[in-house]
């Protein structure tokens, strides 16, 4: 059986080490790509729901109501709204894995408890013209929120790609974890520049979102909150410079 040359072992180590350094940024890009896909699907679902919502005729309130409201007056709009919501917002591919809520629960979270009552199959809330206008506005706001968050995601994606490229250039200049003495000043300068650049970004904003809050939300399932800083810390901790 042939043995593996020492040089191959060295190359394997370098490859593994570089992957370890870049892993937080690569993971961040995977998270961001998933978030973008989900946001796009949710936005499309909400836009389709909005179209169907606008087609549902509201129920005019009687000028002098007498006794209990007739179920007939609300059953058709309620059924139409529930069907529209189920066919659009709840029909996105990731709904069960991410949300897994009942229709009424999701409406309450998305638009508020006042709207959730309207979607309850046993509701006695009339779908009045003012309520329809209000629900249309709430749906438009939900769409706008997805659009804004997706823009922030795209900005963060571009930023992660740039840092990945810059960091890759730095680590690929090394053929071991020992930084040559002649290169140490340049190495430290390049790493410090990236660190300062990212820290400056973290004190600014991503589209409409404060960057620290954005990172906390986006990377909440990771062991780290700041992928670039984590990658840079891994690099600094693993080299002899």
TrEMBL record:
Taxonomy, superkingdom: Archaea
Domain DUF7260 positions: 24-240
Protein name: DUF7260 domain-containing protein
Lineage: Archaea, Methanobacteriati, Methanobacteriota, Stenosarchaea group, Halobacteria
């Amino acid at each position: 059986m042939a043995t593996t040359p020492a040089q191959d072992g060295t190359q394997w180590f370098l490859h593994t080490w570089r992957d370890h350094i870049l892993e937080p940024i690569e993971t961040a890009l995977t998270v961001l790509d998933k978030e973008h896909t989900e946001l796009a699907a949710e936005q499309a679902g909400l836009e389709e729901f909005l179209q169907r919502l606008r087609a549902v005729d509201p129920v005019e309130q009687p000028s002098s109501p007498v006794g209990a409201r007739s179920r007939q007056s609300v059953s058709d709009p309620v059924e139409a709204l529930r069907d529209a919501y189920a066919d659009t917002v709840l029909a996105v591919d990731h709904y069960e894995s991410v949300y897994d809520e009942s229709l009424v629960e999701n409406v309450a979270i998305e638009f508020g408890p006042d709207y959730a009552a309207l979607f309850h199959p046993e509701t006695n809330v009339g779908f009045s013209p003012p309520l329809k206008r209000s629900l249309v506005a709430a749906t438009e706001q939900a769409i706008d929120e997805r659009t804004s968050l997706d823009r922030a995601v795209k900005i963060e994606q571009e930023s992660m790609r740039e840092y990945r490229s810059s960091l890759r250039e730095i680590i690929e200049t090394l053929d071991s974890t020992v930084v040559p003495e002649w290169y140490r000043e340049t190495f430290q300068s390049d790493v410090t520049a990236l660190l300062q650049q990212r820290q400056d970004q973290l004190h600014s904003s991503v589209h409409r979102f404060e960057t620290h809050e954005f990172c906390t939300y986006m990377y909440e399932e990771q062991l780290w909150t700041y992928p670039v800083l984590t990658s840079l810390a891994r690099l600094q901790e693993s080299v002899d410079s």
